[in-house]
From TrEMBL:
Family of the protein in this entry: Belongs to the xylose isomerase family.
Organism: Roseobacter ponti
GO cellular component term of the entry, any: cytoplasm
Assembly notes: Homotetramer.
Protein name: Xylose isomerase
Protein encoded by which gene: xylA
Residues binding Mg(2+) 1: E230, E266, D294, D337
Protein's cellular compartments: Cytoplasm
Enzyme class: isomerase
UniProt-listed GO biological process terms: D-xylose metabolic process
UniProt: Mg(2+) 2 binding residues: E266, H269, D305, D307
Length: 434
């Protein structure tokens, strides 16, 4: 036991707890909602990078957090692991996620980094066995070290491509070894700053080739988890190739990977792309590539990725409504890709942030499930499109030619009558649930 969370009690479901008690007031893991335990629906995960690796810096100032495990030694990496698992025990969330760089110190060579990584993976594996916390996904950090400043798979230097391939191979191996349920690729620097020095077509082809190798490798080792791409439009690079769900889908189609790769959709990235979270979720579901979510919240004014913990129940409800409509998670889950504000220095801030976020998600999720069960939105939608379920529209949607449709219109009897979209009525309906 470390003493980092000394004096903090495990967070339990206690809807009647007093206002000063940190408790789940909406998240009861065992509550049955839409035929399943809430824990099994929501599949919460803690993100190692924000909670244990991020020092609290911003562009104007460095570290604000003083954590006893900050530093580059293996002993400190083990201490960080101990504290992480102590936090998992306090929260009781079932999953966590890591990048290689979050959990191990960088070595002086590829071989040394790999040794460090594998040693910590073994240590994490022991903790997982003892405690029962599971790995939602693993991923490689191919964006922080300066070698990746011009990209990883899309780098103009083939040696960076090779280094990245070797890194991803080791991270997939480790994810597989720990029984991880997904492997995520976020193209942090897979984009460009200026076309003046960039061969866009070549870089896109490199990214496609890279992903094909990842999928091939996953099958070769028998990894049954999903491979997920995480779209983001910009930041850190000016133009990122995985802009949004639709862009990723066209990329997957181009490289024959649309049945092999799904998406991990992040709330904040959707906002940066000028979409809503639910738009991105609905698009992924429509295209058959919905996988998992990074749950957080962006500041709507700032224009960058603030990675705040979610606190807006109506927004979360609309997002989970799309998740439920898509059939819910299979290998995916709700990863809190969210960090404290840099003034939130106390160990208890970490616990409160996650517990509050889990409660907001639970409350939004229950509202979404109730809305879907009530069926008001689906009935209104079905009614709005009902014309398409009848002839002659069924033929128009399938076999008719433009000329045949024109002939029918010219014959007379087709006289479109505008109908209300009833948006405010539907918004009032949603308000009854959230
Ligand atoms: C950046 C992100 C990333 C990804 C992570 C895994 C550092 O905006 O969201 O977090 O979630 O790299 O794909
Ligand atoms: Mg993310």
């Amino acid at each position: 036991m470390t003493n980092f969370f000394k004096g903090i009690d495990p967070v339990r479901f206690a809807p009647d707890a007093g206002p000063d008690t940190l408790a789940y007031r909406h998240y009861d893991p065992d509550e049955m909602v839409a035929g399943k335990r809430m824990e099994d629906h929501l599949r919460f995960a803690v993100a190692w990078w924000h909670s244990f690796a991020w020092p609290g810096g911003d562009p104007f100032g460095g570290q604000t957090f003083e954590r006893p495990w900050f530093g580059d030694t293996m002993d400190l990496a083990r201490l960080k692991t101990d504290v992480a698992f102590e936090m998992f025990a306090l929260l009781g969330q079932p999953y966590f996620c890591w990048h290689d760089a979050d959990i191990r110190p960088e070595g002086d060579s590829f071989a040394e980094s790999k040794r460090n990584f594998e040693e910590i993976i073994d240590y994490i594996g022991e903790k997982m066995d003892a405690q029962g916390t599971k790995l939602l996904w693993g991923t490689a950090n191919l964006f922080s070290h300066r070698r990746f400043m011009a990209g990883a798979a899309t780098n103009p230097d083939p040696e960076v491509f090779a280094w990245s391939a070797a890194t991803v191979k080791n991270c997939i191996d480790a994810t597989h070894r720990l029984g991880g349920e997904n492997y995520v690729l976020w193209g942090g620097r897979e984009g460009y700053e200026t076309l003046l020095n960039t061969d866009l077509a070549r870089e896109r082809a490199q990214a496609g080739r890279f992903l094909q190798m990842v999928v091939e490798y996953k099958h070769s080792i028998g990894f049954k988890g999903a491979v997920l791409i995480e779209p983001k439009p910009q930041e850190p690079t000016k133009h990122q190739y995985d802009y949004d769900v639709a862009t990723v889908y066209s990329f997957l189609k181009d490289f024959g990977l649309e049945d092999e790769v799904q998406v991990n959709i992040e709330q904040g990235h959707a906002i940066l792309a000028g979409h809503s979270f639910e738009h991105e979720l609905a698009t992924a579901a429509a295209l058959g590539i919905f996988g998992s979510i990074d749950m957080n919240r962006n500041d709507y004014q700032s224009g960058w990725d603030t990675d705040q913990f979610p606190n807006n129940v109506p927004e979360v409800a609309l997002a989970y409504y799309e998740v439920l409509k898509a059939g819910g998670f299979s290998t995916g889950g709700t990863n809190f890709d969210a960090k404290l504000r840099r003034q939130s220095l106390d160990p208890n801030d970490l616990i409160a942030a996650h517990a509050g976020a889990m409660d907001v998600c639970a409350r939004g999720f229950k509202a979404a499930a109730a809305m879907l069960e009530d069926g008001g939105l689906e009935a209104a939608r079905a009614d709005r499109y009902a014309g398409w379920d009848r002839e002659p529209a069924k033929t128009w949607a399938t076999t008719a030619t433009l000329g045949e449709i024109a002939a029918e219109v010219e014959k007379g009897g087709i006289d479109p009558q505008p109908r209300s979209g009833r948006q405010e009525i539907l918004e009032n309906y949603v308000s009854r649930f959230v």
